Amino acid sequence: MPKVLYVVDLSENERVKLMSIVNKRKTSSKRILHANILLAADINNPNKISAPVIAERYHVHRQTVQTVRKTYATEGLEAALGRKKRKVPPVEPKLTGDVEARIIALCCSDPPSGYERWTLRMVADETIKLEIISSISHMSVGRILKKTNLSLI
């Protein structure tokens, strides 16, 4: 049997917390699964079983068992139960606070000659023309203005 790199040594309080998560079944299935894996991988468990057996019992890959063990050993119980949070969103937002401020300032300025007031389409076209942003729809301009309770009517 290979040496276990990350040992799961649960305290009594942690074991009670994990048992309540498993028994109540009022949380996400992933959290319950990770709680079961931690309980099975605990070195104080009288029924010691290996990672492949845990993986087979809970229908997960062996690497999942190792990942849960590693997360518990390095980051703690809550990190092992929860999902990893993204540090960076998958797509950077195009509309930042600076862009929104410049669009609002444009709406507050005088409209082009020959027009009484700005329309959403005119604001979107002017924003692209002034190179504030590479592309924007009139609907996005409307959402920005709605957030600030600013109306073009």
Description:
The chain is mainly alpha-helical and 153 residues long. The model has no long low-confidence stretch (mean pLDDT 89). The longest helix is centred in the middle third of the chain and has 14 residues. The protein folds into two domains: 70 residues; 51 residues. GO terms for molecular function: DNA binding. Keywords: DNA-binding, Homeobox.
- Count the beta strands: 0
Strand content: under 5%
> Low-confidence stretches at least 5 residues in length (pLDDT < 50)?
none
Describe the global form: rod-shaped
Backbone CA Rg: 27 Å
Query: Please, how many domains?
Result: 2
SSE order, as H and E?
HHHHHHHH
Main sheet: strands, sense, barrel: none
With helices defined by DSSP (H or I, 4 residues minimum), what is the helix count?
8
Report how far the terminal alpha carbons are from each other.
75 Å
Mean pLDDT: 89
Helix percent reads 40-55%
InterPro entries: Homeodomain-like_sf
Keywords: DNA-binding, Homeobox
GO molecular function: DNA binding
Protein name: Homeodomain-like domain-containing protein
Keywords:
single chain, 153 residues, mainly alpha, 8 helices
Brief summary of the model shown:
The chain has 153 residues and is mainly α. It has helices at 12-24, 29-41, 51-57, 62-75, 77-81, 97-108, 120-129, 138-147. Helix 7 packs across helix 8.
